[in-house]
Specification:
InterPro entries: DUF2339_TM (IPR019286), UCP035905_mem (IPR014600). The chain is an all-alpha fold and 930 residues long. Helices cover 73% and strands 0% of the residues.
Length: 930
């Protein structure tokens, strides 16, 4: 009983389809009559015939209502289209003169109007009756065909040949019925139910039956050979793809799936890679053509992804990549010329500002599915080629051809962001992988004895391919910019980044891994040519009127030209010569501001000085430790550090009137930094016997650095007064903060001779303590005095406290040196007289500061005096009472008492004198006193 159920379902389906066809014909007829009657009522009779115009509305109102209700019931409320129809036996009415005939809208306008109109809510009846029933019916038909075959097999009713023939005939019959219904389908059904069309579902079910019958004939029963089976499956797939032009994108997906899966269904002992990829390419191109005709986006994206997957699968077990590479190139050509082709370009936005937001909108515009699937379907197999052992073609050649083709396609279609960006990223990734980062790691491990296997030899061919790929990106990038810089400055700027950065990076990677570090003429001349081309492109675009819309693009090209010239300097020179020439090259770009107003020219000097700092950080000696002269000051460090510092100073002066404030600030800051660095490195070299090493500096050397930083803070403060600048203002405070940090951490801590045991020198006053404490303390005091009305009060207080701490440390350590001699480490202990001397010295400092504070009416000095006196009192009561004995203990307390009484009398005199005078408070000065 259950075996007959599929046959019953098929019969019921045919009866239902036949009834639906009759109902559709009746609805069409009634719709035409109602529409024509309404038209005649609105226009009136023609040629003075009153019969038509005088038709009573009441006479046909019920019929119209009934017909309209039936129409709305069948079309779910959609208004039927008004097409010209004529009643039988009635003359066609003429249009009234004051109502001109309306011309039909163009197809593009109709599509735009339909897209902008909000879609009506779909009723449950429509969803279940018009859509779900169609989908379920199509599935039932497909399963019915399968069950019929299964029933015949299990029952043994028919032979295999007859069963396969019937299955094929059943599939053809479904396709024929689908085409028959399509030609007589309900009006607007295609628009209303595009994804649930009865003809498309029937055709799809028939196609499944045909695929199953052909595969069974080959794979199960062996009735036909692989060649005939392949041809039949391909013809069926392409036939379904052709029918999809009539039945929609869903059927196209089925045909595409069948065409792409056909090679998997055919087993052969001698697979031919050329035949396979020619067939796959034809299938992909045919899908692109069909998609172009119908405007589909999903099916061609799937086709590109499937071809990329086929390429990856084929590369797993093959030594031949030529057919794969050609197939992928053909897919790129189909994407560029067929679909989306030129019609897929997004309109440029010439007035859009150059910003990340505008770039984000551009990245998300256009057919993203087509662009991204194409890019990944090309890039992933191309990268996989690099890891395969290929016999017919050098793998990097195949990779370079695919990446160049993808980049060229992105350049041809200016709206295609992702192919361009992914091609550039893939080229850079392949360069890093192919040049052997792993090999370099092996070299490192080999040098340490961890990796003892033989290292692979480097192939010079890779260098040539990388340089060729760099030239390709340069050419297509500049070509794109030349064509589109005026109408599409945003994407042209993206191409400027690629054309400027990618060739330089590829050439640099090639030089680092394959170049000759002494004199590499190949990389040197390539870099010189690259820089000249980029610089010439800037001049060409400037004369073509690219400014100001393409200003950022020209700046990027300028930066690329400088990077290329800098690479040439590294390939053709070395040592201190390279460092000086880089600074001179940047200064030459800066001086070009006198001839050209390009905003990027001063920033090139900033790049050059940053490059100099990078070289200094890489090798502070600039010429190598062995080649560095030991002569103090007059050695290679003087020009290597001094000339860039001097050029930075001249550059800061040259751009004093430049409109860009940030570049002025950057050059001023770099000039200050390089000047200080030049002096500091020369001092370190001289104080270490002509040797630069990484050891911790001594207190004397560190004191020179602290004095330099304090002096830099004062110089920047003076420059800020003459020409106000954030760099000068904040730079002076940063320098002062660094000096304060050095005081706390080094002078008073790590390098203090009390902790290190370092010799303080044999002279009583002119010794290490003078250089390490008194001179920096006086420098801090002078800087605080100079900054009292120019910088915030907390900063000035910190400077004054630093000076006071250094002065206090100098007095204290000098007392210890008087009693302990040249070496004053803590492990030598304390004598009683030494302990008493500290109290005397500290009280003397407190009294001295009090007198100075009274003389200059400086509240800060009086506060410092009070702090020192309090510290002394604590020391006398806590330390002297416990450690001193006899007369020293008595003298300590007696002296402290006299000093405290004197201080009290001093303050009483000051306060009493102030109380007898009229008190006038200055608005700008706070009240004084402790």
């Amino acid at each position: 009983m259950f075996e007959l159920l599929p046959l019953i379902l098929v019969g019921v389906l045919f009866i239902t389809v036949r009834g639906s066809t009759k109902r559709i014909d009746r609805l069409e007829k009634e719709l035409g009559e109602v529409r024509e009657r309404l038209r005649l009522l609105r226009l009136g009779g023609a040629d003075g015939e009153p019969g038509v115009a005088a038709i009573s509305t009441r006479a046909f109102a019920p019929a119209a209502a009934t017909s309209t209700a039936e129409i709305e019931d069948s079309l779910d409320g959609e208004e039927p289209p008004l097409e010209p129809m004529v009643l039988r036996g009635q003359p066609q009415p003429a249009l009234v003169d004051d109502e001109p005939e309306l011309e039909p809208l163009p197809a593009a306008a109709r599509a735009q109007t339909a897209a902008s109109a909000p879609a009506p809510a779909e009723s449950l009846e429509n969803l279940l009756g018009a859509r779900w029933a169609v989908w379920a019916g199509g599935l039932a038909l497909a399963l019915g065909g399968v069950f019929l075959v299964r029933y015949s097999i299990e029952s043994g009713l028919l032979g295999p040949g007859v069963r396969l023939t019937l299955a094929a005939l059943f599939g053809l019959a479904l396709v024929a019925v689908g085409e028959l219904i399509r030609r007589k389908a309900l009006p607007k059904a295609e628009a209303l139910y595009a994804n649930a069309m009865v003809p498309g579902i029937l055709t799809a079910a028939g196609a499944v039956s045909l695929f199953g019958a052909i595969y069974a004939a080959h794979g199960i029963y062996g009735f036909i050979g692989p060649t005939l089976a392949f041809i039949l499956l391909a013809v069926t797939a392409f036939g379904v793809l052709g029918l999809s032009l009539l039945h929609g994108q869903a059927l196209a997906g089925l045909g595409l799936a069948g065409s792409m899966l056909t090679p998997l269904l055919i087993s052969t002992t001698a697979p031919n890679l050329w035949t396979l990829f020619i067939y796959l390419t034809v299938a992909q191109v045919a899908t692109s053509l069909a998609s172009r005709l119908k405007g589909w986006l999903i099916v061609p994206s799937i086709a590109q992804a499937l071809l990329g997957i086929w390429a990856l699968v084929a590369l797993i077990d093959t030594t031949e990549i030529t057919p794969i590479a050609l197939s992928l190139i053909a897919m790129i050509a189909a994407w560029m010329l067929i679909w989306p082709g030129a019609t897929g370009d997004d309109p440029a936005e010439p007035e859009a500002p150059l910003s990340l937001e505008a770039l984000g909108r551009r990245m998300s515009s256009g057919p993203l599915g087509l662009d991204i699937t194409l890019s990944l379907a090309v890039l992933l197999p191309a990268l996989m080629m690099l890891e395969r052992d290929i016999t017919d073609l050098f793998p990097l050649f195949g990779f370079a051809a695919l990446i160049a083709a993808l980049a060229a396609a992105g350049s041809a279609r200016h709206g295609a962001f992702w192919p361009t960006a992914i091609a550039a990223a893939g080229a850079l990734l392949a360069a890093v992988v192919e040049t052997g980062m792993v090999g370099q790691a092996q070299v490192f491990l080999f040098g340490w004895g961890i990796y003892d296997t033989e290292l692979p030899a480097l192939d010079v061919t890779v260098m040539h391919v990388l340089l060729g790929l760099a030239a390709v990106f340069l050419f297509i990038g500049l070509s794109q910019i030349r064509r589109r810089f005026a109408e599409d400055p945003l994407f042209s700027t993206v191409w400027a980044v690629i054309a400027a950065a990618l060739p330089v990076l590829l050439a640099t990677i090639s030089f680092v891994f394959y170049g000759i570090y002494a004199r590499d003429w190949l990389h040197g001349f390539f870099a010189l040519g690259l820089g000249a081309v980029l610089l010439g492109a800037c001049e060409f675009l400037d004369r073509k009127g690219a400014l100001p819309g393409f200003r950022r693009g020209i700046d990027v090209l300028l930066a690329g030209s400088f990077a290329a010239f800098a690479l040439a300097l590294h390939t053709l020179t070395d040592g201190v010569v390279t460092t000086i020439l880089i600074a001179l090259l940047g200064f030459a770009y800066l001086m070009a501001t006198r001839k050209r107003g390009w905003s990027g020219l001063p920033w090139i000097m900033v790049m050059a000085l940053v490059g100099v700092l990078f070289r200094i950080g890489w090798d502070p000696t600039l010429v190598g430790p062995e080649a560095l002269s030991r002569t103090p000051f007059l050695n290679q460090l003087l020009p290597g550090y001094g000339i860039p510092a001097l050029l930075a100073l001249l550059a800061a002066y040259e751009v004093r009137n430049w409109p860009g404030q940030r570049v002025r600030n950057a050059l001023q800051g770099l000039a200050s930094l390089l000047g200080l660095l030049a002096i500091a490195i020369l001092v370190r070299h001289a104080m270490n016997g002509g040797v630069l090493d990484s050891s911790v500096p001594t207190l004397g050397e560190q004191s020179i650095y602290t004095l330099l930083v304090v002096g830099l803070s004062g110089i920047l403060m003076t420059l800020d007064l003459k020409s106000p600048s954030p760099v000068f203002r904040y730079g002076s405070m940063v320098a002062g903060g660094i000096a304060i940090a050095q005081t706390v951490s080094l002078h008073l801590g790590a390098l203090n001779p009390y902790f290190t045991g370092e010799s303080t020198g044999s002279w009583p006053l002119i010794n290490l303590l003078l250089i390490g404490y008194l001179l920096p303390g006086l420098a801090y005091a002078g800087l605080a005095f100079y900054a009292r009305d120019k910088r915030p009060l907390p900063y000035v207080v910190l400077l004054a406290l630093s000076g006071a701490l250094l002065g206090f440390a100098w007095v204290t350590l000098s007392v210890r040196r008087f009693w302990q001699g040249e070496f004053i480490p803590y492990w030598k202990g304390f004598e009683q007289a030494e302990t008493y001397s500290y109290s005397v010295a500290w009280l003397a400092i407190g009294v001295g500061l009090l007198m100075l504070g009274s003389r200059f009416d400086a509240r800060s000095l009086r506060i410092a005096s009070a702090v020192i006196v309090i510290v002394t009192v604590a020391k006398v009561f806590l330390i002297d009472m416990a450690n001193l004995e006899g007369v020293l203990r008595a003298l300590s307390f007696i002296g402290l008492g006299f000093v405290l009484i004197g201080i009290g009398l001093f303050y009483q005199k000051i306060l009493s004198g102030k109380s007898t005078r009229p008190q006038v408070v200055d608005e700008d000065e706070a009240p004084t006193g402790i």
